[in-house]
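It is worth pausing here to work through a concrete case rather than discussing structure prediction in the abstract. The textbook approach is simple: state the sequence, then state the predicted structure, then interpret. We follow exactly that order.
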Amino acid sequence: MLKIEDLHVFYGGIHALKGISLHVPKSKIITLIGANGAGKSTTLRTITGLVKAKKGSIKFLDEEILGYPAHKIVHMGIAMAPEGRKVFPNLSVLENLKLGAYFRTDESSIEKDLDWVYELFPRLKERKKQKAGTLSGGEQQMLAVGRALMSKPDLLLMDEPSLGLAPLLVKEIFEIVQQINEEGRTILLIEQNAKAALKIAHYGYVLETGRIILEGTGQELLNNEDVKKAYLGEA
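Step two, the predicted structure:
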């Protein structure tokens, strides 16, 4: 579904991505793990057109999208739940969700997807008239994911969905990620919580200072001694 080849990105004089290549097959959960500053968020922001690449290729459904503006990429079926949630604090939960469907014209289908988001996140339904800025961190994360789903994406990009959440909420978020995948959505998941991400991922990549240094199935990476030492806190 998504193929990245030899992607190079610079921030000024900093070479942030140094020729990374990865593949996201349809209907799978693919995770990209690594330390802060490794280039994980830069990868997602480049896919969505928010950051320009110096060199390389990003193909979505066999179409080259590198250089496309962000709004066209959303139209094509890629949505992102960004790091830090980025909800609209002065708008209600329902208004935030409807903004996710801004480009859509299929009204009856939008209502069905709204019902589906409320099934995934019952708390959002309970608080649909509440201002997003008054929600807890976990609820805002649910809203960010729900808003991305409202664009009806073929590919959902998730940037650090567990960041700053209590352990019980982290477990809940990852269960919902699996549920979204079981509904047929393809997911590219960026996470610092490597253990949780690898447990649900079909395949994973390890990014270190702008380079992919390891790849394998989620289970293979969980069992890898280097990954255990560097990212899982295990000797």
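Step three, interpretation. Residues 1-77+155-235 form a domain with the Rossmann fold fold (CATH 3.40.50.300). Residues 167-182 form the longest helix (16 residues).
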